[in-house]
# Entry
Amino acid sequence: MSTAAATVPIARSTSASTPGIVIPEGHTLHTENNSHILISSKDEAFLNPVQEFNRDLSVACIRIWSEEINREKEAKWKQGQERRAKRATTDVAEGKEAKKVKGMCKEFGVVVEMLLLLPCPLTDTFRLVDNASGSSLSVAQAEGHDMEKSSTLQTPEGFTRNIEYRPYKFVLLEALSATGLRSIRYAKEIPLVRFVVANDLSESATAAMRRNVDLNGLGPSPETGEGKVRVNEGDACALMYNHRTEKSRVDVVDLDPYGTAAPFLDAAVQAVTDGGLLCVTCTDLAVLATTNYFEKCFSNYGGVPVKAEYCHEAALRLVFNTISTSASRYGRYIEPLLALSVDFYVRLFVRVHSGAVEVKKAASNTSMYYICSGCQSFFEQKLGRTIEKVNEKTGARSYQFKTQVGPPVPSECSDCGFPLHVSGPMWAGPLHNPEFVSKVLEHVEGNLDKYGTSARMRGMLTVAKEELHTPFYFTPARVAGFFHCTTPSLEEVASALLHAGSDVSRSHACPGSLKTTASRTDIYDVFRCWVKKHPVKMDKISNTSPAARLLAKEPRTEANFTKHPKSVTQSSKVKLVRYQQNPLPNWGPGSKASGIKRKRNGEDNE
# Structure
């Protein structure tokens, strides 16, 4: 613990809800799940209690990712064992004699001979099983052996030698930790965490972190001198750049800054190992989700935002594009696992891989969008296209990468005739991996008591799992406003689109929204049919308005508003909490810590 933390006068009172924890004078105790932190009245580090949903979701997603990466490594380990067994059998059949190296087995007090055959992987654990009793004793673990000299073990008489897989423990780096609450929760709640590096630029924040880490029993142990949460004071980018070499990369990087994460993304995509996880929060939706500061959005994210009701989904796609282009510079590409627009921020979970072919596909997953200023129709212009060819004889796949033709629309909207404005470039691929989201949802439903915001997590994850990959969503109320007509229900609009052969889902980003594979023109045809049954008073509609031009066209097909069996999604069947419900008075992003000097990047949105 630092000197600053050690000299705080200790009050005589303890917390009634957490007996045994002594609260220093001038501090308050904040408890989240089974983690506790002390918050100083001096505003030494920023904490936003409303972000509990963010932290709960992060714990669940990182935990599921860690289990997935562990399964992948175990599968590779088993394949390696099979190859080694096959080679060993071949060596014996060919009469090759292995070099013998003697070692002492202290557990049994007998000399054990070790044969030099093949290098032992780091995930191996050696055990001797007593044939009579069935009990097992550990002989050696891979991390305590010279890999070049210890590979297979000749067992004592009466014992059978087993080689077991040792679960993969990962390293997590939280670049902007503030109070350290997030890092502490990761260390305590995710079983496969090896250790967490908790960094902040602020001296007072790192002092608070050390105090909170010790409070939770995660500080340096007397035996090793290292704790499960290791506090570092320094520049976030410099720390991540120090981990950019292949051997020093970490498994997970978490960025949760106060404002934009853009300055940290270049370092972050290099610091994550292949298949590792990048978690990103951006709280600058005033920049990402409006065109009021489009020049700032372009300088931060390299793209122009959208002025439309689906601006929050566009914000996610702008951040994804920034991560994708940052990774592409280093021969890396992204695999989105989950991306949510929540309250006043966006939260993304992305796997980072290396691969030349997939990097070349990035242009095909990137689009410009032309947005109508009158009716919010959008027209997609992809920047590239990928042609995949499969060899009929060998089944091998080859790719050709071509530029894309365009533009997709004239200078005016084909639906209402109003001018278009340009947005992007932004990510045009999927926002979520349904298989991953399903596993996170299953985990949450089995551990509802372990997450304070589990009800909302279930709702958001259920919607995200069902969400279509196509951009963008719409709300019947807004489209009805363009037509100046009464608003049909969600079920009626969804049924009409489904009867027409289009797919429909909800969107997590906006209450009362729908996503569909139908074109915007198809959606407008549904509303034109609706207007025929529910006429509009044309005397109050200007001839130059979008409504007049939309209503002037006849629908190409007749819409069927009869209830469709698939119009009720799983997220609609169950009463779920999907959207924020004012947890506190005047809730929101909060104000950054003002009692300390911030040099550059120590501001965190915990």
